[in-house]
């Protein structure tokens, strides 16, 4: 069983920054690729980015150059650094590995 817990969401003005964290349980964390997804009101959940267990990252075009994913395997933690935030980044952000999802953390960007 893998548990994922996100934190770090909040309200920020456009142009601001936030860093989300996702703490995972279980030894599987260190050998698993981790993903970040988001779901805005009335929209489907969408891909934000991933990080492999070796630290190789991929990003959606909409966040490329603004968001950075990193991981600290010693702490079983994955981070999503979000800079230059836009109102359209407002969503609930989820971390994921395999079939496991966290509960999500709300990010609201005001204009």
How is the secondary structure organized here?
Layout (H helix, E strand, L loop, with lengths): L3 E4 L2 E4 L4 E7 L9 E6 L6 E6 L5 E3 L7 E6 L4 E6 L8 E7 L2 E2 L3 E6 L1
Write a structural description.
This protein has 111 residues and is mostly beta strands. It is 0% helix and 51% strand. The chain has strands spanning 4-7, 10-13, 18-24, 34-39, 46-51, 57-59, 67-72, 77-82, 91-97, 100-101, 105-110. Strands 2, 4, 5, 6, 9, 10 and 11 form a 7-stranded mixed β-sheet that branches. A hairpin with a 2-residue loop joins strand 9 and strand 10. The chain is globular and about 40 Å long.
Cα Rg = 13 Å
Extract low-pLDDT stretches.
none
Q: SSE order, as H and E? A: EEEEEEEEEEE
Portion of residues within helices = under 10%
The general outline is: globular
Task: Tell me, rounded to a whole number, the average pLDDT.
Answer: 94
How big a fraction of the residues is strand?
over 45%
Structural class: mainly beta
- Largest sheet features: 7 strands, mixed
Number of strands: 11
C-alpha end-to-end distance: 40 Å
Q: Number of DSSP helices?
A: 0
Tell me briefly what this model is.
The protein is mostly beta strands. The protein is built from no helices and eleven strands. The chain is globular and about 40 Å long.
Index terms:
111 residues; mainly beta; 7-stranded mixed β-sheet; 4-stranded antiparallel β-sheet; 0% helix
